[in-house]
Design a protein that fits this description.
Radius of gyration: 17 Å
Shape: globular
Number of strands: 8
Structural class: alpha/beta
Helix content: 25-40%
Oligomer: single chain
Strand content: 5-15%
Number of helices: 9
Order of helices and strands: EHEHEHEHEHEHEHEHH
Largest sheet: 8 strands, parallel
Distance between the termini: 41 Å
């Protein structure tokens, strides 16, 4: 089994982020005290323990100019959320998490998440996982009771039209990761029309993250990203996707380069919304 590589040393972006900015999509890794899932497809970079990862994460945030963060549990640990809970606790105020729960999780499980500053459960249609769409729909009322939401990784051009009616009926927000991870960069497909309609209606949020996962030419993703922003800048978020796990054939990016790419196609007013106001509203209700 392959090991991931450690991320590049952090450097600041060319355009400073506004005060109070969030990095709304990272993963934290641990050490030997955090057992990995037997079904994982990759090992973390060797020779690093939990404290090392936390120190690297702090340096990453400092270089970007982010003071708040959303830590998304990685499937490398399966549904054992211990490492993510520990990371949220270690980081303190201004840090929240997204965890993994399987189909059939109880209201008590969801309450336990809420008490641990976990604000959402994640559903992964790209890499697989422990939660199905039907399972997420079933737990949505209990999530609503705790002020939580659902975060989803999917290929929008394969799935968003099929689930749009369900999304409109959800009692909780749905956050779509990685610009909807399209397999086609055409910004004017029926699937992107649906994605933008859901954005415009305020039914979903979209993370403008990880263009490197679906194109080697980030500029080619600009029309899609701009269409998402223009649909509803009040429901867009940004995250670095640090430390870049399960890359497949994608080259590892520099976080500062991703930040520069984002800043190059957004205004200061849009960045204030996407980096500060929107995540504050969603993650700190």
């Amino acid at each position: 089994m392959d090991n991931s590589n450690p991320p590049f040393p952090p450097t600041p972006p060319a355009t400073p982020f506004p005060n109070g900015a969030w990095d709304a999509h990272v993963h934290l890794l641990g050490g030997p005290e955090h057992p990995l899932s037997p079904t994982r497809v990759q090992n973390p970079a060797p020779g690093l323990d939990f404290d090392d990862w936390v120190a690297m994460y702090r340096a990453h945030l400092s270089a970007l100019g982010c003071s708040k963060g959303l830590i998304v549990h990685t499937i490398l640990y399966g549904s054992d959320n211990t490492v993510t809970r520990a990371a949220i606790k270690a980081m303190g105020d201004g840090f929240k998490g997204v965890g993994l729960l399987p189909d059939g999780a109880s209201a008590q499980d969801i309450q336990d998440f809420a008490r641990a500053n976990i604000v959402a459960v994640r559903l992964n249609y790209v890499h697989g996982g422990v939660l199905t769409w039907d399972g997420a729909l079933a737990m949505a009322p209990a999530l609503a009771d705790q002020g939580m939401h659902i975060q989803m990784l999917l290929h929008a051009d394969k799935h968003i039209e099929q689930i749009a009616a369900d999304v409109r009926a959800l009692p909780v927000p749905l956050v779509i990761d990685h610009c909807g991870w399209p397999t086609d960069l055409n910004p004017n497909t029926p699937a992107i029309d649906t994605l933008c309609a859901l954005l415009a209606e305020g039914q979903i949020y979209v993370k403008l993250s990880a263009p490197y996962r679906f194109t080697s030419d980030w500029e080619a993703a600009t029309p899609l990203i701009r269409r998402l922003i223009d649909a509803n800048p009040d429901h867009c978020l940004w995250g670095s996707d640090w430390p870049y796990l399960m890359l497949a054939d994608a080259p590892m990016p520099h976080a500062s380069a991703l930040a520069n790419s984002f800043c190059a196609i957004t205004s200061a007013q849009e960045r204030q919304k996407i980096l500060c106001a929107n995540p504050d509203r969603l993650f700190l209700p």
